[in-house]
């Protein structure tokens, strides 16, 4: 709805114009004034969208009225209506940027055309205003993200000069301090009583950022923001209000209380890395940030610690693993089943690799991964190519930061992968042993009437006698002697029932030269002598 003001000292002209507008748009609010002063009174507390005004009026003329209205409401659309075609009036009206200058007598079509033009202009103006307001609101909402973007660039030393000036205005101060990195996890266990929705989690992330600032600000001034490359990590640039040491003081205790509270109330585990103190943190931002990153990385080795200070670990941190350790010498026997794997082996291996230092976890993981792949390469001629490929993929995916967030998890993955390689090798051994055992059993069946000993068979198939005995028991469920005896007696039973051969002939056929011994073994097995067995079974079947 638009509000229209008609100003004319001639009642008839004023009424004609007002009624014409009302007939055109019944929803418009149309107000009338008989002079400039009365019009200004109506404008108080009201915003006029369109004003139709005569020029010559008592008390305050039309052009003066237009000037006053334009100063108060520059968006109003003004139409001057005059019975005079004097150019000086028209020029002044144009100087005041009126929309139209219409001469009396009023023509309804001219007025309606003018109204339609002004309606469209007002619609476009309002639409543009709404778009500008929406853009302003959007820019306002994006301002924190832009600020975070600048702070991220600043910590990495990537800001231009003008961007550095913007950062300085965001920080609001300069002086001594440090960078504090707080990394936390989204709960995936039963620590949190209620699973968080995406909306809940975003709210909690915002709260954690605010809580860190609230914790640090009583001791100085803190600006906190999320790191773009690690959205679960908050960086806080902390300016201390007085002399301080980065690894001591009440503010560190308050941070620990905050971490305890997050775990207790939200199930969120948070680790905090405190960088080295800088006398002018603005000019030493990269160093402050790098040392905080180093401190946070060392949670890999100090997973029970909630707060880790660079000053506490600086003498132990190193990039490359400096220890010496032979994976092949220690774990090749494990993979080939010659030695059991125990936790002590893995503990010793990790300690020797670390060499009493805290190497960069990413480089340590890479070192372990490469050595496991080398061990895998050594069994490529034993294990099928497809299984080698699967194990290689497992090593690459499981020995990396996302799967090994601390040393305990690394040793667990390390041990499990060794066991999987050992299982793959054993599976192939078992498969080969199965083939050999099948050949062995076939040989026994085919040579049942001959002298057969475990030692001879072991030698025939290139096995140690003791190992062959164990292997035979594993595959048949019986000891070698027991298996041969059972096979001979059961074969003798079938021959007795299926032929007229004499007892001694049957005994010889199944490998017994001593008939009395054969009878004794047979009776022990079936409860009957061979002769009784044949009689009670009715002879040949």
Automatic annotation (TrEMBL):
What Gene3D superfamilies does UniProt report for this protein, alphabetically? Answer: 3.40.50.2300, Homeodomain-like
Q: Which CDD domains does the protein's record reference?
A: REC_YesN-like
Answer yes or no on keyword Transcription: yes
Which keywords, in A-to-Z order, does the entry hold? DNA-binding, Phosphoprotein, Transcription, Transcription regulation
* Positions in coiled-coil regions: none
The reply on keyword Ribonucleoprotein is no
- Matching Pfam families: HTH_18, Response_reg
Residues bearing 4-aspartylphosphate are 54
* Name the UniProt record assigns to this protein: Response regulator
State the species of origin: Cohnella zeiphila
């Amino acid at each position: 709805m638009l509000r229209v003001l008609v100003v004319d000292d001639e009642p008839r002209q004023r009424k004609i114009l007002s009624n014409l507008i009302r007939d055109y748009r019944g929803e418009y609010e149309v107000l009338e004034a008989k002079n400039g002063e009365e019009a200004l009174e109506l404008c108080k507390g009201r915003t006029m969208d369109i004003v139709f005004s005569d020029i010559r009026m008592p008390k305050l003329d039309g052009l003066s009225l237009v000037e006053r209205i334009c100063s108060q409401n520059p968006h109003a659309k003004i139409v001057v209506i005059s019975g005079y075609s004097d150019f000086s009036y028209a020029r002044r009206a144009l100087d005041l940027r009126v929309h139209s200058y219409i001469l009396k007598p009023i023509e309804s079509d001219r007025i309606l055309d003018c109204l339609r033009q002004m309606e469209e202009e007002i619609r476009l103006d309002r639409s543009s205003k709404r778009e500008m307001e929406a853009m302003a609101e959007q820019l306002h909402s994006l301002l924190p993200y832009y600020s975070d973007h600048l702070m991220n660039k600043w910590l990495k030393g990537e800001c231009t000069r003008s961007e550095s000036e913007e950062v300085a205005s965001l920080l609001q101060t300069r002086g001594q301090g440090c960078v504090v990195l707080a990394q936390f996890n989204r709960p995936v266990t039963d620590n949190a009583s209620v699973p968080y929705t995406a909306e809940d989690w975003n709210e909690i992330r915002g709260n954690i950022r605010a809580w860190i600032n609230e914790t640090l600000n009583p001791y100085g001034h803190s600006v906190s923001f999320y790191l773009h490359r690690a959205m679960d990590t908050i960086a806080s640039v902390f300016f201390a209000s007085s002399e301080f040491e980065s690894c001591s003081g009440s503010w560190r205790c308050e941070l620990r209380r905050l971490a305890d509270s997050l775990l207790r109330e939200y199930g969120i585990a948070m680790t905090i890395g405190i960088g080295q103190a800088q006398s002018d943190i603005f000019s030493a931002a990269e160093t402050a940030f790098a040392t905080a990153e180093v401190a946070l990385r060392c949670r890999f080795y100090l997973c029970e610690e909630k707060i880790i200070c660079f000053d506490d670990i600086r003498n132990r941190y190193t990039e490359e693993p400096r220890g010496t350790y032979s994976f092949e010498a220690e774990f090749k026997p494990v993979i080939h089943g010659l030695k059991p794997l125990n936790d002590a082996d893995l503990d010793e291996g990790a300690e020797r690799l670390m060499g009493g230092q805290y190497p960069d976890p990413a480089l340590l993981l890479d070192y372990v991964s490469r050595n496991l792949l080398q061990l895998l390469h050594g069994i490529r001629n034993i294990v099928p190519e497809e299984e080698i490929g699967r194990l290689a993929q497992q090593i690459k995916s499981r020995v990396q930061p996302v799967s090994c967030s601390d040393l305990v998890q690394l040793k667990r993955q390390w041990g499990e992968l060794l066991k999987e390689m050992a299982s793959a090798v054993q599976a192939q051994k078992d498969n080969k042993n199965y083939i050999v055992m099948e050949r062995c059993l076939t040989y026994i069946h085919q040579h049942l009437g001959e002298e057969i000993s475990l030692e001879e068979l072991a030698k025939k198939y290139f096995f140690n006698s003791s190992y062959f005995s164990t292997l035979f028991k594993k595959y048949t469920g019986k000891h070698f002697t027991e298996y041969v005896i059972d096979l001979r007696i059961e074969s003798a039973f079938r021959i007795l029932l299926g032929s007229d051969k004499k007892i001694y002939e049957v005994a010889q056929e199944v490998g017994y030269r001593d008939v009395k011994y054969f009878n004794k073994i047979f009776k022990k097995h079936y409860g009957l002598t061979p002769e009784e067995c044949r009689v009670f079974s009715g002879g040949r079947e």
